[in-house]
Specification:
Number of domains: 2
Strand content: 25-35%
CATH architecture of the largest domain: 2-Layer Sandwich
CATH topology of the largest domain: Ribosomal Protein S5, domain 2
Function: Catalyzes the phosphorylation of the position 2 hydroxy group of 4-diphosphocytidyl-2C-methyl-D-erythritol.
GO molecular function: 4-(cytidine 5'-diphospho)-2-C-methyl-D-erythritol kinase activity; ATP binding
Organism: Streptomyces griseicoloratus
Helix content: 25-40%
Keywords: ATP-binding, Isoprene biosynthesis, Kinase, Nucleotide-binding, Transferase
Order of helices and strands: EEEHEHHHEEEHHHEHHEEHEE
Distance between the termini: 14 Å
Structural class: alpha+beta
Largest sheet: 8 strands, mixed
Number of strands: 12
Pathway: Isoprenoid biosynthesis; isopentenyl diphosphate biosynthesis via DXP pathway; isopentenyl diphosphate from 1-deoxy-D-xylulose 5-phosphate: step 3/6
Oligomer: single chain
Bound molecules: 4-diphosphocytidyl-2-C-methyl-D-erythritol, adenosine-5'-triphosphate
C-alpha cells in the first residue's frame, strides 16, 4: 500500500516585505499563485525507519537525511500522534531546487498529506496547517494551493478568488540562491531607510479576481527582487530577454533565482519560452499555468 500526493510550485505576484522582526523573520504581504509545475511524494510503509529517496534532474541537490523538509514533516506528524515515522518517502522532483518556487515546501506539504493518509491519523485541515506553519513560511500555501494572501511571515493565509487562467514562463538559473541570504541582502540594501508596513495591493487582488493578465502585469511587485539581482546580477539579462520576447511582465520569482514571465496566452508563453531557450541567459525554461490545486492525493 502506498499514497502519492501531487503538490504545485508557486510564484509570488506581490511580495511586500516589512522591516526585520525581533525573531529574524519579516512581516509580509505575500500574494501567492500556485502554478502547474509539480513534485510528487509517495509514502510507503518502511521496515527500516524513515527513508528518503529522490529522482529528477535536480535530485543531486536534495538532502536525503532528516534535514529534508519532507522528512521533517513526517517526523512532526509522527510525534504529534505518538507513533514511529516508519515510512519511505520518494520524491519525484520537477520543481527547481533553491529556485524561489517553494519546492522544499511543496515536499513538506505533500509528505504531511501522504503520511496522514497512509497512517490513518486523520489530522484536521487546521492541524495540518499548524504543522505546515512550523515547518516553514511557504508550507501552508503549498497545502492550500490556488491563490492566497499570506500575512505574518507568510503563513497566515486568506484564500483569494481567481477569475481566469494565467500563462507563465519560468527560467531557471545555473545555480541556486539561499532564501535567508536574499532577506539579509534586502536588510543590507534597506539600512537607514524607513520601511512601510507591508499591505496587499488591491490592484493585484482585482487583477487575479478578474483573471486579467494585462492588469496583473502592471501590478506585480517583488520587494526581494533588488536583493536577488544584487546577489545574482546576470538575472537582469534573463529578465530583459523575456521582456524583449513579448512578456507582459518579467520578475524574479520570490527569493529567486528563477525568473517568471507573464504571457498573454498559451501561444505567447510558448514563443517566449523558445526565445529564452535560445538566449543563452538561463539554464532551463518551462511553461506553466496558474492557479493550480494544492496538495492532492493522486
Ligand atoms: C521568499 C518566499 O519564498 C516568498 O514566498 C518566502 O518568504 C520564504 O519562505 P520559506 O522558504 O518557507 O522560508 P522559511 O523556511 O520560513 O525561512 C527561511 C529564512 O528566510 C527568512 N524569512 C523567511 C520568511 C519571512 N517572512 N521572513 C524572513 O526573513 C528568514 O531568514 C528565515 O530564517
Ligand atoms: N525536499 C526538499 N527539496 C529541495 N530542497 C530541500 C528539500 N528539503 C530540504 N532542502 C534544502 O532546502 C534548500 C532550499 O530548497 P527549496 O527548493 O525549498 O528552495 P526554494 O524553492 O528557493 O524555497 P522558497 O521558494 O520556499 O524560499 C535546498 O538547497 C536544500 O538544501
Amino acid at each position: 500500500m502506498s499514497v502519492t500526493v501531487r503538490v504545485p510550485a508557486k510564484v509570488n505576484v506581490q511580495l511586500a516585505v516589512g522591516a526585520a522582526r525581533a525573531d529574524g523573520f519579516h512581516d509580509l504581504a505575500n500574494v501567492f499563485l500556485a502554478v502547474g509545475l509539480y513534485d510528487e511524494i509517495t509514502a510507503t510503509p518502511s521496515s527500516q525507519g524513515l527513508r528518503i529517496t529522490c529522482e529528477g534532474p535536480d535530485a543531486g541537490q536534495v538532502p536525503l537525511d532528516r534535514t529534508n523538509l519532507a522528512a521533517r514533516a513526517a517526523l512532526a506528524l509522527a510525534e504529534r500522534y505518538g507513533r514511529e515515522a516508519d515510512v519511505h518517502l520518494h520524491i519525484t522532483k520537477d520543481i527547481p531546487v533553491a529556485g524561489g518556487m517553494a519546492g522544499g515546501s511543496a515536499d513538506a506539504a505533500g509528505a504531511l498529506v501522504a503520511c496522514d493518509a497512509l497512517w490513518g491519523t486523520g489530522a484536521s485541515r487546521d492541524e495540518l496547517l499548524a504543522i505546515c506553519a512550523e515547518l516553514g513560511s511557504d508550507v501552508p500555501f503549498s497545502l492550500v494551493g490556488g491563490a492566497a494572501l499570506g500575512t505574518g511571515r507568510g503563513e497566515k493565509l486568506t484564500e483569494l478568488e481567481v477569475g481566469g487562467t494565467f500563462h507563465w514562463v519560468f527560467a531557471t538559473a545555473g545555480r541556486g540562491l539561499s532564501t535567508p541570504a536574499v532577506y539579509r541582502e534586502l536588510d543590507r540594501l534597506a539600512k537607514g531607510r524607513d520601511i512601510p508596513e507591508p499591505v496587499a495591493d488591491q490592484a493585484v487582488l482585482d487583477a487575479l479576481a478578474k483573471g486579467d493578465a494585462d492588469a496583473l502585469a502592471v501590478a506585480v511587485t517583488n520587494d526581494l527582487q533588488p536583493a536577488a539581482l544584487s546577489l545574482f546580477p546576470e538575472l537582469t539579462d534573463t529578465l530583459a530577454a523575456g521582456r524583449a520576447a513579448g512578456a507582459l511582465a518579467a520578475l524574479v520569482s520570490g527569493s529567486g533565482p528563477t525568473t517568471a514571465f507573464l504571457a498573454s496566452d498559451a501561444k505567447s508563453a510558448s514563443d517566449i519560452a523558445g526565445v529564452l531557450r535560445a538566449s543563452g541567459t538561463c539554464a532551463t525554461v518551462r511553461t506553466a499555468q496558474g492557479p493550480a490545486a494544492g496538495a492532492t492525493v493522486v
